[in-house]
Known about the structure:
The protein is of the alpha+beta class. It has helices at residues 8-23, 27-31, 62-78; strands spanning 34-39, 42-47, 86-96, 107-116, 120-128, 134-145. The chain is built from three helices and six strands.
Amino acid sequence: MGEGATTAGLEQLKQLINLGVEKGIGVGGLLGMTAEVLEPGRVVFGLVPRADFSNPLGTVHGGILSTLLDSSMGCAVHTSLPEGAAYTTLELKVNFVRGVPLDGGRLLCEGTIVHLGRRVATAEGRITNEDGRLVAHGTTTCLVLPAPTGE
C-alpha cells in the first residue's frame, strides 16, 4: 500500500458491494459482476458474458470489458483510501488483445494499485478468460478526493 493507505476504504467498499447486491443497484449488479477478491490494493471481479453484452460482430462489446477494468482498478484504489475519502476516474486506457466470444466462459479481472498518493492514484488491470489467457489490460489515473472536513 502507498502513502497514507488504510483499510477504511476496503471496509466501506465491502459494505457498498453488499448493499448493491441486496438492493440490486449499481453497475456490478446490472452486469452480474461478482467480487472474488477484496483486499488492500487488489480487487478481482468475475463476469460471465451473456448475449446482451454483444457487439455487432457477436463478441463481447469493448465497453463491457472497459467497465470491468474501470471497476476493478477503481475499486482497488478505493480499498486503500482513508475513511471518508473518495475517488473519481480521471483517465482510463484499455488495450484489447483478443476477442471474447459470448459463450467463452467466465472472465476474471484483477485490478491492483500501482501508486497511491494524497491526490492521485494509479492502478492497472488485467482481464483473463476461462483458459487464463489475457483478453484485455488497462491502466487508470484516479483523483483522490479527501474526506470532508466538516467546516
